[in-house]
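Review form for a predicted model. The reviewer records the input and the model, then writes brief findings.
Reviewer: anonymous (R2)
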Amino acid sequence: MKHISILVPRGDVVPDTIMGARNMFRMANAYLQRSGQLDVEKYKVELVGLSREPVSYGGVFQVTPDRTIEQISKTDLIIVSAISGDLEKGLEKNAPFIDWIKKQRIENDSAIASLCKGAFLLAETGLLNGKTCATHWTVHELFQQKYPQVKLLAENIISEDNGIYSSGGAYSFLNLLLYLVEKYYGRETAIWCSKVSEIDYDRSDQRHFVIFNGQKEHTDEAIKNAQIFIENNFAGKLSIEEIARKFAISRRNFVRRFKKATFNTPLEYIQRVKVEAAKKSLESSTQNISEVMYSVGYNDDRAFRKIFKKYTGLSPLEYRRKYNREMALS
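Model under review:
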């Protein structure tokens, strides 16, 4: 029998990631036993905390760890549950997990999987440096700023890099759990868990969930004003040279400062603003694809579809069918 440790962090946490992981692996164990493939559980699944004291989340949900990190000398898979709220406070409260995770990885070659914003706690170990990672799209910029040595896969729901796994945001952690069930229990078991849980199998892209609000959590006022200008004038023809000149900045310096402040080049930012406007039209209007394309400042059908798919993972028509209520009912 092997061992799975599901971390029970302190502070603001998404408790569903704790109980969802526990239930998924227990379901996999039960399937193997029910189908006669095993007489005992393949993995012992335990909730692991910094103490045995119950941890309360939001005053309405309480989790009692099965064991503490001091009582776990060896584990095969560590599930880093999702922290939330004030991430800096969350990292501080759960700092004792960091050395334990590193020790398990170095001494026992344990696999590690972070769920959603649990990627921040995993990144604190340094084990992600030089590796790929996924996390919730709402914190991509913060994650890149805080952990520049980690290669963030912004579009991915699942990332795997040499035994270190991570998932995108919110309930996409269920897709990573299915992926891990397939890895450790086999595809047959994973498909069964998928059907019983009614979770889409092999979903790997989170781009069409992203809502682009513009990255303005920075102190470069000239760039912030340039962002506002782009957002107010996206339907027209925008020239990077003219925007830079409007704010009395050389083109080269403008591009450098823009990328530093927003994690996007000016061209990427313009594209994302246009695509976000197109998405809203496709979700709520009856305009055809060409009309939507013209309304956001594109005249080339091929270019529009290419850029749209780059940022959403779907074609404009696929996006409309998925998110436009009238289209869904027709």
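Findings: The first strand starts at residue 2 and ends at 7.
Further findings: The mean pLDDT is 91.
Recommendation: see findings above.
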